[in-house]
Amino acid sequence: MEKEEKYGGSTFVMEIVAIILGLLFLVPFYFVAINSLKTLGEILVDAASFPSEVIWANYSKAWEVIKFPKALFNSVSIVIVSVSLIVVVSTMTAYRFVRRATLFNKILFSMLIASMIIPFQSIMLQLVRITSLLELRGNFYGVVACYIGFGLALSTFLFHGFIKTVPLEIEEAAVVDGCSPLGVFWKIVFPLLKPIIITVVILNTLWIWNDYLLPVLVIGSNKDLTTLPLAITRLFGQYTKQWDLALAALAVSITPILIFFLFLQKHIVEGITAGSVKG
């Protein structure tokens, strides 16, 4: 029988450090929560103290000012369509790269991975020009197309590592049974990718939900497509900054994605760990 690991001083120190780091990460949530219930004057005087009087009206006012239902619908729609297409395209791309490891495919994969080191800020002007030229600015499909383009590299990289762990013998047996190439992928391989699919969905959802810069460039002045990050900026003008309403709006906007992340977070490590082992 294996000996049980003793609870030593090093373990205690690591637990204390972990608790301190956890509390540090919770500090921003503390400031958002308590200041969303204060008046603007009280926030400016002391942002760290508890509210002397809880102002729940901040939430109702922020809801109306940023038109929360419409902004929420836009954010959810963009996230669902973008992430779904990223998963479909990147899984098929990665599968092709792994199972058809030709020189051409290896070069394409290397170029795809290399694109991840290019800073987004260095291509912003080109992005605006291209989207304008293709008439993609200010419409839903333009935003989705941009998110697919920028999310494809990392997603393909993660799927590429995971597909290597899928035994080739399973696919060969399916082919012997008369399964078509598309059938092998969708009926055999794709269901086996569930852990890494959940990981990719979580990572891309968090990115797209909180993204501000790309919607500003692509959506522009189209108020019908305003996402939550763009809607919150309405509370900040050149001369006025409504921190009380902005923090209430921020608290409301992060709630759905926070619940989503807490519900699926255990799959992140599982998916990345499984994908890091070559089959």
Describe the structure.
The chain is built from 14 helices and no strands. 28% of the residues are buried. The chain starts with 8 loop residues before the first helix and ends with a helix. The radius of gyration is 23 Å and the shape is globular. The protein has one domain (59-275): MetI-like (MetI-like fold, Orthogonal Bundle), CATH 1.10.3720.10. The chain is mostly helical. It is found in: Cell membrane. Its main location: membrane. It comes from Paenibacillus oenotherae. Keywords: Cell membrane, Membrane, Transmembrane, Transmembrane helix, Transport.
Topology:
Blueprint: H1 9-35, H2 40-45, H3 57-65, H4 68-99, H5 103-114, H6 124-133, H7 140-163, H8 168-176, H9 181-192, H10 194-210, H11 213-218, H12 228-232, H13 243-264, H14 266-275
Helix pairs in contact: 1-13, 3-13, 4-7, 4-10, 7-10, 7-14, 8-9, 10-13, 10-14
Main location: membrane
Subcellular location: Cell membrane
Pfam families: BPD_transp_1
